[in-house]
Amino acid sequence: MDKKMHDKGLEVRKAVLGEAYVNNALKNVDDFNRPFQEMLNEYCWGTVWGREELPRKTRSMLNIAMIAILNRQHEFRAHLKGALTNGVTREEIREILMQVAIYGGMPAAVDSFRIAREVFAEIDGKA
Length: 127
Hints:
By secondary structure, this protein is an all-alpha fold.
């Protein structure tokens, strides 16, 4: 494991998803899933998210679309919050989900719009 890249990834992961979210994920690390968490921090968050060629806002927009199409609701919720942190507006999220509907299918968009509304309500204190 590249410790420097791992630490960079952990820093980026916490900045995007929030320290509480990441700490909660890491408190469940054990001998079985430790290698996966290390890989996640090093490669996903360090090697890719840590690159300077795309701004975090753009990476968040891409993730929203891809994760919505994959119908990974838990990850979608986390990355939706991260996208807002990275400066993606609600209007931009709506437009991304409209694109998802056309290219990824209506069922993926229906679920994603529902989750987005729930996340917005939580943020607005209306949950």
